[in-house]
Amino acid sequence: MLKITFLGAGSTMFAQRLLGDCFLTPALRESHIALYDIDPARLRESYRVMASLNETMNKGRARITAHLGVGQRRGALRGARYVINAVQIGGLEAIRNDFEIPKRYGLLQTVGDTLGIGGIFRALRTIPVVLDFARDMADVCPEAWLLNYTNPMAMVTGAVLHGPYPVRCVGLCHSVQGCVRGLLLRLGMIDDVHEEIPITHIANADPGRRLQWTIAGINHQAWLLEARDHGRDLYPEIKRRAFRMNREALRPGAPKHDNMVRFEIMRHFGYYVTESSHHAAEYMSYWLKARFPHLVETFNIPVDSYLKRIAHADELWKRQVAETLSGRHRPKYRSHEYGSYILEAMETDVAVRIHGNVLNRGFIPNLPARAIVEVPCLVDRNGVAGVVVGDLPEICAAINRASINVQLLTIEAALTRKRETVYHAAYVDPHTSSELTLDQIRALCDELFEAHRKWLPRMT
Predict the structure, then answer these.
(1) How far apart are CA 124 and CA 127, in angstroms?
(2) Are the CB atoms for 76 and 87 separated by under 8 Å?
(3) Residue 182 pLDDT grade (very low, low, confident, very high; cuts 50, 70, 90)
(4) Are 72 and 136 in contact (CB under 8 A)?
(5) Which of 386, 358, 389 is CA-nearest to residue 372?
(6) How far apart are the first and last CA of the chain?
(7) Strand, helix or coil at 370?
(8) Is the Cβ–Cβ distance between 283 and 277 less than 8 Å?
(9) Which terminus in the chain has less CB density within 10 A, N or C?
């Protein structure tokens, strides 16, 4: 029986989406689903949700088991063919530290889960746990694929691929799938259709069109390099409409929209970035400026957005669990998450094209070879194979390299447990270094080390 292990099953709604997709996939319906978490209440509810969906969506064809705590982790992993990682280490307390301590230094963040000082410390507390997963996988399911959904994506995936355990791993996000469709919908260049459409045709959302696009870069900072309709270059019209939308939104008293930062990045650098404006705003040094506080309002930047959202997570979780158990929520279509499509392709040998986060084996030559890049990948029974994209436009590569510097230093710090290397990662972070002095950055890191002490390994 095919075994799929879900690490971090307390993330009930994410587990429901990914594993519900498996119930809707004939090749995966009769699987053993092993749910693992360290929170007994969350695990219990996740088990109830998945058992309910298995009965209502899947006629009870899957086997669902629950595994609590570190002592049961190897049992959850033993014999697995696929392992899905969606853990969050430290919960709300750690996230508050990530935001509130930097804010005392005048450093604002929006999400803090990928780059910046928040992303660095999120990585430091997450990577040791994921490496423990990798160690156990190497022992009890050495042929399994690890599908990592945990942020900071590039740092966590990179730590596994650069780490001491020979685990096959791909990092997965969902910022690429809907990028082109979302952009063209926003600009009025295609009509809306049902949101659940086949993953292999995710860009071809408007009947009668043949959209072609190329996206590559790094996670949360990949670039729309081209977009065509029947061979016609769509970029001139995309830019014309996007720049007009921003001009109108920048007029005094005009309503704002939530894509202003991305459109402004495209205006100055020439290319549209895949991830949302509230993410993109904290990956560069131009938007969250203490000297120019008006930029937050001008460009509609939601400071502390993730902290505000996570504060209501328990309430949302309880409501969604209740809706699922009552039968009010029952997915009818596979979501746009890549997970089930990857598993299906490996099981059936019917290839699918995804965008994955993989080690840069020449896929983007003008980015470092040790970087984790987000590129097109082909998936079949042989696994996940990245596709050569070629050089990025030099400005796109330059922006990516600034982020990659932080990622590689943070990975090195996590693997070597060298405190000094954490300082180095923070020193070169684009946003942090543009706002604080070296001494301030070091002091900030020291405060965060103390605040995160219970989740961090000893660093020398």
Answers:
(1) 6
(2) no
(3) very high
(4) no
(5) 358
(6) 45
(7) coil
(8) no
(9) C
Between strands 145-148 and 168-171, the pairing is parallel
- List 32, 174, 257, 424, catalytic entry: 174
> Residue 279, SS3?
helix
Domain ranges (residues) in the chain: 3-172+326-360
Q: pLDDT digit string (tens) for 295-320? A: 999 999 999 988 888 777 777 777 77
Distances (CA, A) of 65 to 6, 68, 324: 10, 10, 19
Q: How far apart are CA 419 and CA 440, in angstroms?
A: 16
Which distant-in-sequence residues (6+ apart) come within 8 Å of 232 by Cβ?
none
Which residues partner with 357 through β-bridges? 171, 374
CA 409 to chain centre: 19
Long-range contacts of 414-422 (CB under 8 A, 24+ apart): 414/123, 414/124, 414/127, 414/128, 414/155, 414/159, 415/127, 415/159, 415/162, 415/163, 417/457, 417/458, 417/459, 417/460, 418/459, 418/460, 419/449, 419/459, 419/460, 422/120, 422/124, 422/449, 422/459
Q: In the numeric block, which tokens belong to residue 312?
A: 């209501």
174 is catalytic: yes
Q: Which two tokens stand for residue 96?
A: 């508050």
Q: Name the pairing type of β-strands 82-85 and 63-68.
A: unpaired
Q: Looking at mean pLDDT, say which of 12-21, 135-144, 325-334 comes out highest.
A: 135-144
pLDDT at 197 over 50: no
Q: Does domain 3-172+326-360 have CATH number 3.90.1820.10?
A: yes
| Core vs surface per residue 146-185: b (16+ CB within 10 A) or e | bbbbbbbbbbbbbbbbebebebbbbbbbebbbbbbbebbb
CA distances from 267 to 38, 210, 282, 397 (A): 46, 26, 18, 17
Cα 10 from Cα 87, distance rounded (Å): 8
